[in-house]
Design a protein that fits this description.
Blueprint: E1 8-12, H1 17-27, E2 31-36, E3 44-46, H2 52-62, E4 66-69, H3 76-81, H4 83-104, E5 108-113, E6 123-124, H5 135-150, E7 154-159, E8 161-163, H6 166-169, H7 173-182, E9 187-191, E10 195-196, E11 198-200, H8 201-212, E12 218-221, E13 228-229, H9 230-240, E14 248-252, E15 270-271, H10 274-278, H11 287-307
Parallel strand pairs: 1-2, 1-4, 2-3, 4-5, 5-7, 6-15, 7-12, 8-11, 9-14
Antiparallel strand pairs: 10-13
Length: about 300
Amino acid sequence: MRLTKNHRVYISGCAGMLGDAVYSEFSKIAMVKATDINLNEEWIAFSDIRDYCQMRQSVLDFAPDIILNLAAITDMEKCELEPDNAYLTNALGAENLGLLANELDVPYIYISTAGIFGGEQEVFSDFDIPCPSSVYAKSKFAGEMFVREHVRKYYVVRAGWMMGGGPRKDKKFVNKIYKQIKAGATQLNVVDDKLGTPTYTHDFAKGLLKLAQSDLYGVYNQVCDGACSRYEVALEFVRLLGLDGVITINKVSSEFFKNQYFAPRPRSEKLIAMKLRSRGLYVMRDWKTSLSEYAKLYLHDLSKLVTV
């Protein structure tokens, strides 16, 4: 499907860090209806992915040519504490939109996660068998499996360690580091025993657009080129901020944060994008290149602090 201004794209869960990038990319060439329960932008309309009847009305009123599902509870500790809400959002929500995609006979894009793998090996391809351990991972994998088994036209796209959205919307690792720096911390404790593949939202959105126009349905890993530890990401981010001589980063094990981050996490979540590469659909850049671009938002934010 070659998207044009005459095509309609429905995006759920568009208020988060990935939503900004996906909305920006798809709205350049198609009509977009962006929805969420969090109305933090004027271009977002209300819709709750957990409510099938309400969601059905929202989708059918728009009559989309393609449906994207970005809606998810990604806070792993919240999922452990609220498992019913996690499954209603991450699994049942995926089912709700999948059923509507079938009803309209349109393609459905579901965003999955590297977290569905259990860390029993170092690197995972598109074809490896997931073994989720946390409530978050299990609920996301439940959504993925419904899509794979019951939706006729689907793209399941697995992301890694997401980065994007800037100081206002990023809820993940990079912004957690930045918040500590902004609060005046000169010592950071960062784990070096967790491995993964960063995933820049803007590159990811470009990849979704290319994939959506390919008609090559299936399951895809889509992550930045290269893998690393959390410690390596922190080192590079601090360097990009020009603070490597100011901020000290201490290596710690996951045991150090066991009370704060109690949800089970795999040792390795490294993904390789075997299928995208082989089909000429891979658009992601090296993680350091993407982080360098992303860090400019934080440099701008820091400069405002200095001028104030």
